[in-house]
Amino acid sequence: MSEQEEDHLVLPVSHPSPGAMGPTGYWRNFKPVIDQEKCIKCLLCWLFCPEGTIIRHEDNSVSVDYDYCKGCGVCANECPVNAIKMVPEGEEQ
Amino acid sequence: MVNIKELPSKTLLMPGNAACPGCPETLGLRYVSMALGDKAVLVIPAGCSSVIQGIYPKSGIGFPILNIVFAAAASAASGLARAYKIRGLEDAQVVVWAGDGGTGDIGIQALSGAAERNENIIYICVDNEAYMNTGIQRSSLTPYGAWTTTTWTGKKEHKKDVPLIMIAHGAPYVATASVGFPTDFIEKLRRAASIKGLKYIHLHAPCPVGWRFDPSKTVEVAKLAVQTGIWVLYEYRGGVFRISPLSRPYAKKERRKPLKEYLKLQGRFRHLGEDDVKVLEAYIEERWKLYLNMEKTLGSKAT
Q1: Which residue is closest to A48 within chain B, CA to CA?
Q2: Could you tell me the domains of chain A?
Q3: DSSP state, B301?
Q4: Which of A8, A47, A78 sits opposite B4 (nearest CB)?
């Protein structure tokens, strides 16, 4: 028995980890697709993403974590240069 | 002023939590994490945020959390803050993350008590204007005219002004914020963390499920609430009352956006007639008059 499992037996404490409800990407109907050429690296999509599934890289460019993105579309709505499009799932551009 | 590019890129909110798409509470929790980092310890009474954490053995929120009953959030936080002090952990910041029902209805006696004793905690009320977690029942912070499952012809009473109640308690720091203006919220949180005593921040949080709008519009609706003047950002600190710069332009009625722009986005206001809109407009006017008068009398103590 691992130390963490033993810990759980003594006191049922939840440990923070991604995917507490499983891969929530399955909830998605529309998928945000970022046009990297249009992106001006303003980071507003990253700031306003309710899930934290917009990944911010070293040079302030962004990409989407599709495993957990729930497809709410806040990023596409807030992008000042319309660089993010919501594409129906299964219909790749 | 907070620079977006200088904010930490990793937050303590875990992706894959149980929140609905477009949830304003997870948005708010990310900002708390950006502002306070790992110094924050959350006390969460019953509400959406208790559910967002997800299922054992995983937790969707990376903060240490004490889940507690509705009526005891502020008293539990008081105890926690005192315990941390006795153990010498002075830099731990106890934060209550409560909904509008847990603040204005069920939790107000504990909050009032904590404010009277001036406990060293930050109390954040995430105001989504109804009991969303149990299925959209009215709370005392639901605005006039809004549909909920218990007011299906529209609520007949106005919203309770909890921040003003907290100012009346003489709390050292009281502020209003909105999820649509994160830099303002983060700035207020950081300022609150530097002050000793009870700090109260009222966060306006539009809920797509309960307010009946598209999840992609969460931030848009939050911004419109400020731009139409129905939600006013202000700060009360050490006896000085100031309207925040982001709300300042809307003190003049002609600079506000028409209220209908805010109402028409939301299904909960779909049934409103012209008369109801007039009642709401009169309410906005009356609130602004009060806040501007407060600023006049309480605005110039420090400078």
Answers
A1: B27
A2: 18-88 (3.30.70.20)
A3: S
A4: A47
Structure token digits, residue B270: 């779909």
* Per-residue pLDDT tens digits for B78-110: 999 999 999 999 889 999 999 999 999 999 999
Residue of A nearest to B217 (CA): A74
CB A4 within 8 A of CB A10: no
Interface contact A72-B216, CB threshold 8 A: yes
* Contacts A–B by Cβ distance under 8 A: 119
Where helices occur in chain B by DSSP H, the ranges are: 24-36, 48-52, 73-86, 100, 108-117, 162-168, 182-193, 208-211, 218-227, 259-264, 274-298
- Give the count of alpha carbons within 13 A of B239, CB side only: 4
**Nearest-CA distance B98 → chain A (Å):** 18
Task: Assign domain B11-298 one CATH number from 3.30.70.2740, 3.40.50.720, 3.40.50.12500, 3.40.50.970.
Answer: 3.40.50.970
CA distance A35 to chain B (A): 18
Question: Letter for the amino acid at B71?
Answer: A
pLDDT tens profile B187-228: 999 999 999 999 999 999 999 999 999 999 999 999 999 999
Question: ipTM score of the complex?
Answer: 0.91
User: Domain locations in chain B?
Assistant: 11-298
**Are B218 and A20 a contacting pair at CB < 8 A?**
no
DSSP for B122-162, written as a single string:
EEEEEE-SSBTTTT-B--TTSPTT--BTTBTT---SPPP-H
Tell me which chain B residues have a C-beta less than 8 angstroms from the C-beta of A77. Answer: 216-217, 219-220
| B178–chain A Cβ distance below 8 A for any pair | no
- Residue B9, helix vs strand vs coil: coil
